[in-house]
Amino acid sequence: MNKLTGYFILIAGGLIGIYVGKFINLISFRRAKNQSVSNIFTGLIRNKISLSSKEIEDGEVKLFAKDNAKRTNRFIRLNPESVEIACSCIVMISSLYTENDIYRDPQYIRILESWIISSILIFFTIIDLKYFWVPETAFRFAFSLAIVRNFFYSINTNFLKTITALSNYLVASLLGYVSFLIIAYIAKHIIGKKALGEGDIKLSALLGMLLGLKGWLITISLSFLLSFIIVLTLMVIGKLKIGEYIPFAPFLCLSAFLVWFTNNEYWINGIYSFNSIW
Question: In the chain, where are the structural domains located?
């Protein structure tokens, strides 16, 4: 019975991922058509989410033509089917979250949490990859969910423990926002242009609220390491030139997913093991 439950959870996660992908495609369609995304749920309710690749791609071509050339040639054009498959796989994989054994003792609150967090991260990843854009409405929604989730997990009969637990997330979020704001300010004055966008700064604050102080520190370290490796590789093979933009949100989201999926101790123990070799 437990095996069947585990398989059902995986299938359900995959189906949810498909609809997350459809939601992203709908936003892509409206963004490409220069339409408002504030009433996006109306389109979902009316089931206007079956968009063809040609509809989205035609709109994106027109959008690309209006945008800055240095950013236009780095947009990643993902067709709707690829987006839905990617979302389905990520959300399904998130069901295997290390602190929850879906085959032996599934914790349904944790499963729901894993679906929500993975959906949020892949949403910001794909939208930023396609448009160098972190939607404000989506950020506020995700941040509000993170606050509610932290309060739910931190509440304790001991008032001091509750405050301490909540403070961990609050400090991480503030540190995420302020540190990235400072980095962006310094980088702009050194290289003369933005190195981090406002969306990256807010996303850093969101990840602090989701992961806490330890998780945020590991995530930021990993994201800068990944971005350095990818940027260096792209420059070596001639796919990226000095002065061209590359979205940073995907590195933040990928790092956050890896840290959250495996937990903080995995990375801390890995660092200690690496240091012991040397």
Answer: 1-132, 134-269
